[in-house]
From TrEMBL:
Alphabetically ordered keywords of this record: Amino-acid transport, Cell membrane, Membrane, Transmembrane, Transmembrane helix, Transport
Protein name per its UniProtKB record: Amino acid ABC transporter permease
Cross-referenced InterPro entries: AA_ABC_transptr_permease_3TM (IPR010065), ArtM/GltK/GlnP/TcyL/YhdX-like (IPR043429), MetI-like (IPR000515), MetI-like_sf (IPR035906)
UniProt topology in membrane: Multi-pass membrane protein
One MF term in the entry's GO annotations: transmembrane transporter activity
Entry superkingdom: Bacteria
Transmembrane segments: 20-42, 54-77, 97-116, 200-221
GO cellular component, one term: ATP-binding cassette (ABC) transporter complex
Classification via CDD domains: TM_PBP2 (cd06261)
Annotated ABC transmembrane type-1 domain residues: 16-218
PANTHER family: L-CYSTINE TRANSPORT SYSTEM PERMEASE PROTEIN TCYL (PTHR30614:SF0), MEMBRANE COMPONENT OF AMINO ACID ABC TRANSPORTER (PTHR30614)
GO BP annotations, alphabetical order: amino acid transport
Similarity comment: Belongs to the binding-protein-dependent transport system permease family.
Length: 234
């Protein structure tokens, strides 16, 4: 059995980083599109009609019960079949990153909607009414009074969601996407299984570093918002 080789870790670490932009792009795209979907769902639950609330609740419930890898395979294998049979559109040659974005947008849009809804409902609506009564427009009252407070409430949960999304995104290599996890799988295959432990340790280091960056960024944002709230109170 080949002995453990710590010196291989930094070597493979930098090779894995060549696919780091793909990981970041998938993460950023999923957050952006997931937030847009989440906003639509949250709005439907907060101020929509009875039917829209029922549909939003049903969608969120289904997504919460679906494992990420199951939804990824459904989208990857099912979406091309659906479009080909119904519209005659062949997307089998589309970049695999598109299927990853669709999957995590659908999945995390549901979670983001609940974060948005709970954060909005945590703010006293009397503040909005008071702001409108002194001459602010409804949009100004929302943007200047409600949104900063709701954002401060949502940030910790959004940080946790982003970290979970980053970890679940590692499953994308199962459909052939060459992100850092996919790159690691290729390296292990190239070495015929040798240096697998060192490769996975290097992968873990990258994910740990990315997690620390995310946590630190959100910590700074949260402190900044709290300082703003204290200055307004004074």
């Amino acid at each position: 059995m080949r002995p453990f080789s710590p010196l291989y870790i930094p070597k493979v670490f930098f090779e894995l980083l060549t696919s780091f932009p793909v990981t970041v792009l998938m993460l950023a795209g999923s957050v952006i599109f997931g937030s847009l979907l989440g906003f639509v769902l949250a709005r439907a639950k907060i101020s929509g009609g009875k039917i829209s609330k029922i549909l939003a609740d049903a969608y969120i419930g289904v997504m919460r019960c679906t494992p990420p890898i199951v939804l990824l395979f459904i989208v990857y294998y099912g979406l091309p079949e659906l479009l080909l049979s119904t519209a005659g559109i062949d997307i089998n040659n589309v970049n695999k990153g598109v299927f990853v974005l669709v999957t995590y947008t659908l999945l995390y849009g549901a979670t983001i909607s609940e974060i948005m809804r709970s954060a909005y409902e945590s703010v006293d609506k009397g503040q909005w009414e008071a702001a409108v009564s002194i001459g602010l427009s409804p949009f100004q009252a929302f943007y200047r009074i409600m949104l900063p407070q709701a954002t401060a409430v949502a940030l910790p949960n959004f940080c946790n969601l982003l970290i979970n999304l980053m970890k679940d995104g590692a499953l994308a290599f199962t459909i052939g996407l060459v992100d850092i996890m996919g790159r690691g799988s290729l390296i292990i295959s190239r070495n015929f299984g040798a240096y697998a432990l060192e490769t996975y340790i290097a992968l873990a280091l990258i994910y740990w570093c990315l997690t620390l960056v995310i946590e630190k960024t959100f910590s700074v944002l949260e402190k900044s918002l709290l300082r703003g709230k204290r200055s307004l109170a004074e």
